[in-house]
Write a structure and sequence with these properties.
The chain is of the alpha+beta class. The chain has a single domain, classed as tt1808, chain A, CATH 3.90.1570. It contains six helices and twelve strands. The chain has a six-stranded antiparallel beta sheet with strand order 1-2-4-3-7-6, sandwiched between helices. β11 and β12 form a beta hairpin. α5 packs antiparallel against α6. The longest helix is centred in the first third of the chain and has 20 residues.
Length: 209
């Protein structure tokens, strides 16, 4: 089965794919490909981000880094690295991912083994179009504690609780932060530019702490 969607992101879904083939594709694509791969129990989706997708992703990344710095939290940024667990038949390349709570556990490491190392504490998922794979089930399988999901207009924070995600009104990583404040930041990026939006966010954090 092959399905292609052409708005927001380009997505291609393949079914009945073996883990070995998925691993071979990861090796073949390497760091040179633009597509991000999601694999879950035999389903493989290629997602190629278009301009609006990457723009939102980069802006949210700036917000997360500014928040961590203003709150004096150690952090490490791993971008869209592959998080994979062959024992669970699950693999995912998020739009962006971060270690904050578990930053010390991965500090200085260049290779991570997710059967031993912790998964990222926070992942960002931009979904302008709907994925054919249940991305939240995939993230839950991989054990990512917090996921932010943005569809171009709505942002939802999810927290992993007893193996499933619950919608929360404050970020577990940044307890002062609501989805509305991130949406305000994104709006500021459009009207005032990214530098000013970051300054506004830093000022807000300083006043809120």
């Amino acid at each position: 089965m092959l399905a292609v969607i052409n708005t927001g992101e380009e997505r291609t879904l393949l079914k009945g794919i073996s883990w070995n083939l998925y691993e071979n594709l990861l090796t073949e694509i390497g760091d040179n490909g633009t597509a991000r791969l999601s694999y879950y129990r035999g389903d493989l989706e290629f997602m190629t981000p278009l301009a609006s997708h990457e723009n939102y992703n980069r802006q949210i990344d700036r917000a997360i880094i500014a928040l961590a710095e203003e709150l004096e939290l150690d952090y490490n940024v791993f971008g869209s690295m592959t998080i994979k667990r062959p024992d669970l038949a699950a693999g995912k390349e998020p739009d962006s991912c971060y270690y904050i709570t578990n930053e010390l556990a991965v500090r200085g490491k260049r290779e991570l083994d997710f059967t031993q190392d912790p998964p990222p504490d926070l992942s960002v998922e931009i979904d302008i179009t709907s994925s054919s794979i249940n991305q939240l089930s995939l993230y839950a399988e991989l054990g990512v504690a917090e996921v932010w999901r943005y569809n171009g207009s709505e942002l939802i924070f999810y927290q992993l609780q007893s193996g499933k995600y619950a919608i929360v009104d404050r970020s577990p990583t940044f307890p002062i932060l609501s989805p509305d404040r991130v949406l305000e930041f994104l709006a500021d990026c459009q009207t005032d530019g990214i530098n000013q939006a970051v300054k506004n966010l830093r000022t807000w954090v300083q006043a809120t702490r």
